[in-house]
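Board notes (copied after class):
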Amino acid sequence: MRLARFRRVFARPAWPTWAAFGLGLGLALGQAPWSLWPLALCALAGLIWLVARGETPGRSARIAWAGGAGHFALALSWIVEPFLVDIRHDGWMAPFALILMAAGLALFWGAAGAFAGWAGRGPRGRALAFVLALSAAELARGYVLTGFPWALPGHVWIGAPQMQLAALTGQYGLTLVTLLVAALPVLLPVGPGRSLGAGLAVAAVAGLGFWGWAREAARVSAEPDPPQVRLIQPNAAQHLKWRRDMIPVFWERQLAYTAEPGDPPPDLIVWPETAVPFWLENAGDGLKQISRAAGGVPVAAGIQRSDGPLAYNSLAVIGAGGRLLGLYDKHHLVPFGEYIPGAALLGRFGIRGLAANDVYGYAPGPGPRLLDFGARLGQALPLICYEAVFPQDLRGTARPRWILQVTNDAWFGTRTGPYQHLALARLRAVETGLPFLRAANTGVSAVIDGRGRVLASLPLGRAGQITAPLPPALAETPYARTGDAPVLILLCLGLAFFVATRAMK
């Protein structure tokens, strides 16, 4: 009886589904912190081959969905961490969050597989249709239902020279190229003496790597007297951050790091997201304490504020005497983290945002805006935490001099989430050609140049400060000028070709 059941599981069509799930796990190992992109590329090629062998839309969809489920189950395993901060209250939701997240996001991949099985003629046609459809599905994943473009296939290149291609194409174009390279062994003849596709895939990876290395190595004119920015990392673990006896500890720690002498001294000091333990309207003498510690140097600090019944997750710029010089309210909020869709109903059952302080959570700010830090530092685009995930959120203003992110990555745990968040910041720097500075509560705080290189950083789980020169801005990249429109048009044309071809059958 057991032997018969074992045979049924691994007999067609079941075994391709299980194999696809395993290949999805291999693909996830290309994400930070593992960054095993050769393994990920081979796993992706295997998944495309399995989808191409699907003889019906349903079978191709099932295989693609299984691959996506395996990929997201491992790559997004950090999603359980926020539920473990208050494990007695929220811990029961952790496994459901991971299962639902992985299964739900894999539906995008399943839809791409279904399209490939419906539109493609033969294995090669299905492989190419899947590449185009999956690229389109990943682009849609960045926009649909507020978007969640985390752990894209193209992200496996972050940290490798091939990442520089994002300056031309953005992360969705990088994903399209990644899928095309992985599909070459399926699209072109393979076999003894005929491994053309595999050879071209290796050549493409090597060519992109050489081009990326040359772009990274190109010299940039340094400023003779660059402005200095100090990033504060208090290392306030989330389960301790708001505890009454620990609030003064973290507060004094941040003031002490702010007051440390520097040679040269900082022109700006940055505290991470929600670093200030009081609300802006209840500041009392708090803002003056920050200003005194900074010696009058401006301080950009994450703080909460309210305006009537609305609460905001904000970044305040504090000048001499505690004067408020600038303010930015986060506008791209985390669903079920910072706000609850349908909060009026769900709040009755005790369900509220994990990172919010009341049932209704935060309200979104009006949108992207620049903060002016004066002649030396120029204008910066502020981002709060999750907003760095979305390249479209960097396109709503005039071009800034640099990008500033404040974040509390303590919510992401200590294994994978903070490193993936840092990786996405590096990719935003490449896409825009702008230096990217991030102050993170528990790490990783970093100074990143316009080619995505980490020039200075504080490791995860360490309290401290770094004072570093602001890197120069590079010329505006092609992607910064065009955004996702060229990739979207190319994908629409490719998918339309398959639809038209299918209609002529």
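Comment from the instructor: Residues 94-119 form the longest helix (26 residues). The mean pLDDT is 92.
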